[in-house]
Amino acid sequence: MAQDQEKKFVELDNFNPSAVDLTAPPTNARQYLRQVVAGRKHEAAVVAVHLEEDEKQPASPLKLCVADPSASATCAFLPDKQWRKSRLELFRKGRDRAESMKKCHEKALKLKWPEKATPDQWKALLFEKPHEGVEEAAESTKSLHAHHKGTPPLVSVLLSLKQPQINNLIEMMSEWYLEDGHSRALFEWLFALLLFVDQPIHADTCSALRQIAKEVRIQRSTLGEEDQDLIRELTFIIVIIAEYFTQKDLMDV
């Protein structure tokens, strides 16, 4: 019994693998192991699998990790934390007023807006020539919207927009800012839309806001001490996006 327990393997003597009959049933352990060894020597080194056309998966696009240039964009003349805190509180109060205004449907103008997939028409209405239904109201508030050649962001205009249109406009604002750079008219429109957009914001809208904030950081980093007004305006937008809309990784420190 002790000898059987010590012998735990089968010894293979020297044999010719080519002479082993792989089709014959083995009669003992040694023959079985010889067939295993001989069979492996006859196997192909590479196994190929044929797939039908409908079984093939499209190749995944190559994704490159590109450093975010906005991450290192700093401003030496950044307003202090107390100023930023006061702007955040100001925006919160503006949102509260906007929520109350949304209930006053009688103040909304009856305006026909372009289709979603026509950004050029929207851009022309907002920044080039006022909507024909807004001309009278725009004229009466002209002094308050001196930077606007097109339709100003009046409360009555904002109330005429449906939430999908507001989300769509914020996404277009991101594209226009990246293409054309900063303008007071564009940022006043963006600020007004952020007052009236519902929460939680749509994923595509959130992505657009993040892109705006990143581009703002880059632009702001190029400004000097003589550009304090513009630095504050850009910082206000970052406060809104990063702190109110909780994109904390974009906050100024």
UniProtKB/TrEMBL annotation:
Q: Which domain of life is it from?
A: Eukaryota
Keyword vocabulary terms for this entry:
Cytoplasm, mRNA processing, mRNA splicing
Cross-referenced InterPro entries, in alphabetical order? GEMIN2, Gemin2/Brr1
Subcellular location(s) of the protein? Cytoplasm
- GO biological process per UniProt: spliceosomal complex assembly; spliceosomal snRNP assembly
Q: Which GO terms describe its cellular component?
A: SMN complex; spliceosomal complex
- Self-association state and partner proteins as the record states: Part of the core SMN complex.
Q: What does this protein do?
A: The SMN complex catalyzes the assembly of small nuclear ribonucleoproteins (snRNPs), the building blocks of the spliceosome, and thereby plays an important role in the splicing of cellular pre-mRNAs.
Q: What family does the entry list?
A: Belongs to the gemin-2 family.
Protein name (database record): Gem-associated protein 2
Whose protein is this, by species? Steinernema glaseri
Lineage at the top is:
Eukaryota, Metazoa, Ecdysozoa, Nematoda, Chromadorea
